[in-house]
Structure formats: structure tokens, C-alpha cells
Write the C-alpha cells for this entry.
Amino acid sequence: MLVNNINYKNIKMKKIIKPWIVAVISIGVSVLIYLILASIFSMENFVFGISISTIIPAIVAYPISNVIYKSHKKINAQKIEIERIHTNIQHSINYASRIQKALLPEENFFTQYFSSHFIINKPKEVVSGDFYFLKKKEDQIILAVADCTGHGVPGAFVSMLGISLLNEIINENKINNAAQILEELRIKVKISLKQTDRKSPNKDGMDIALCILDTKTMRLSFSGANNPLFIVKKNSFEEIKATRNPIGIYPKELPFVNNEIQLQKQDKIYMFSDGYTDQFGGEHGTKFKKNKFRELFTENHTSSLSEQKTLLNETFENWKGEKHKQTDDILIIGIEI
């Protein structure tokens, strides 16, 4: 902190009484008290009494008030410096938020590739540890939703690393399936974060759901690292399980499983982080949980994606209420083929 470099003499104190004013007030009060007492008891030694009653309070009051004044001035200077530092940090975080948003795919890309969609992106703080990814390569559309370790600034750093590595993997490799991308991503995250062995204290990484849609055959390749996929067809709901491993170092690493699903027009797929289901609220202050979350899709699968987005937002706010703060970053994406 830069407080020690502050010139305290230049700090203006608006609400603190200066020492000489305190001394004058003390003298005035002492004289008044002496006059009252002298009128009641005796006027002898009036001049001597006045002198004693003014000099002693002035001698005592001035140094004490001067110490208090300087202490308040220093505290005020520290307050000003802390406010300045806080403002600078807030400006930096806001700027980081703009950079992070610029790395996310633009909304019109979704409109271009899918008949309908919605995106619910609610960071817990200004920047988020959740991110979504969309890229087209030849006849393949790669879509991912990821939940990085933590939230706020630490989570945002990992999210930007994830976006960069996904672009690198897809641009430099022939893509066969979704599991292949996750295997490559795990390797690169471990290298980037210097996760050299399983005893490493650095456990950062991400959970992710990743799909590859072949636009010619309408075949979907899905692989998940802790994050599943919901698929709603005309009269059915299916949850495609994820591999119980994160992207990053893990005590028992498992190969990521690839799932192949044949889609048809008007099928809907949903990808999400765990922020919605982990939100505390309701009458007893419990988590929303996955079963309730799943029911929102099974019971409203005939509604349009726009209506589903409204329902999800309203349900979340009602559950959270005014008593509870948002627990984590929230990201949900719904796509209609």
C-alpha cells in the first residue's frame, strides 16, 4: 500500500476541529465554570483563579487535541488512498470483463448455425469462470460450455486459457470426435498450469461439455468432463452422462468417453455449468439441485426456447429470493437443431 508516501500536511480535514479551537473552547468553558463558582463562593484571588483556570486547560487540551487531530488526519489519508486503490482495481476488472466478453462468440453466430437458441450467462461477479465456445470447421460445428475452477478474476484467467487452447486444438488438428478434443485439452491445461504430478498443489482446471455437430449427417458427437448433456426430442428426454473427471490434474484419470447421437430437425440440446443447481434458496435455504433443474426441461419441452429462457430466469430469481446471494457463475445454453 502507498499510504506511507502521502504528504499528510496537504490533506484537508473538513469535519475534525483543529487543536487551537479545542484549546480556546477549553479556556472559555473553564472561565465560565470559574465565574459561576466564584459568584457562589468567593471573589478572592479572582485574577489568580482566572489565570489558573485558563492556562492549565490550555496546556492540557492543546497537545491532546493535537495528537487526536494528527491521528484523524492520517486515518483520513489512508481512507483516501484505499478508495483510490479500490477504484483502480474496479476499473481494471471492468476492462478485463470487456476483454473476456470479446473472446466469447457473438450472438449472431448462433443465429446463423441454429434455428433457435438461448444463452443465460450470469457471472457471480464482474468477470466469470464460466465460458462458452462456438466454432465452425468445414462441415463441423463445435460447441462447448465450460465451468472453470473458482469464479471472479481467478476463474476468468482459467476461462481465457481454455478458450485459447480450444482454438489451438481445433485449428491445428483433424477433429474426429469430441473425446479427442477433451483429451488434448487435458494435456495442454496440465502443461500450461505446470501440473507435473498428481501431488501438485495446483488443482485448477475446468468441467466442460463439448459437442461436435456434423451439419451434413446431423450426427452429434458428445463428450463431457463432469458436465452432462440434455437432449429433448419430440416425446422424449435423455441425459447423456459425462466422464467423472475434470480437465486438469486428477488422482485417477479416466479416458473421456465419446457418445454418438443421431439428431433430427427440431431436436433440442442443453449444456450448462453447475451454478444454477448449486444455488441456495427456497423456504429452507437449500440447493436447487439437479432433479428440479431436469424437471424444468421435461415439463416444458414443448415450449419455445425463448419461453424456456424466461422460465429459467424467473425460477432462479424466485428460488434465490432476497435473502440469498448468487452462489456461483451461471451459464446455460439451449439449442434447437
